Amino acid sequence: MSSTSMSVDNPGGASSGASSSKMEAEYIEDVAAYIARFPKGTEEALQTMQSTYQQYKLLESRLTQSRQRLMMKVPDVERTLACVKKLVQRKDEGSDTHVDFELTDGIFAKAKVSAENAQKVFLWLGANVALEYTAEEAVELLTKNLETAKLNLDTNRKDALFVKDCITTTEVSMARVYNYDVQQRKQKAMETKE
C-alpha cells in the first residue's frame, strides 16, 4: 500500500501544556489495499476514519480556543508591562505618577503614586491572587511572560495549520474510500445482472 503520512508531536502547542502525542493523517493512494486491512471492510474503514476526523476537529476547536485566549493575553501583558515600565521611569526621574485606575467595570478612580512609593507593584496572577514584586522584578517577569505568550501563539498557529491539513487529508481519504465502495457495489450489481 502506498500512502503518505503527516504527524504532529504536542498538538496543543506550548500554550496548552498537553502531553506529547502523535496524530497522523493518511492519504490513501491504494484504496483496495487500505480497505483490506479491516476485517469488516469499507464500513469499518470509514468508521475508523470518521473517528480520526472527529479527533482532528476536536483538536482544531481546542487550538482555536487556546489561540483566542492567547490573543487576549498578549495585549493585556503588553499594557501591564508598559505601565510598570512607565512607573520605573518616573521613579528613576523622581517624579510622581498620576493614574486613573479601574475599580470595577466602567468606574475609575484617580491616584497619585509618589516616586518613593513606586518601589513595589502587585501583579494579578488570576484566581483571586496577586503577588508583590519590586518594579524591576515585575518588568523582568512581564517581559518573560510576553515572550512566552508570543511563542505559544506562534506555535498554536503552526499547529492549527497542520491540523487543518490533516483534516483536509482525512476528508479526501474518506471520500476516496466511499467512492471506491460505490464503484464496487455498482460493479457487483452489474455482474449479478449478467
TrEMBL record:
SUPFAM superfamilies: Prefoldin. The keyword Chaperone applies. One of its GO terms (molecular function) is tubulin binding. Keywords: Chaperone. One of its GO terms (cellular component) is prefoldin complex. It comes from the Eukaryota. Residues 1-21 are annotated as: Disordered. PANTHER family: PREFOLDIN SUBUNIT 3 (PTHR12409:SF0). This is Prefoldin subunit 3. It comes from Pycnococcus provasolii.
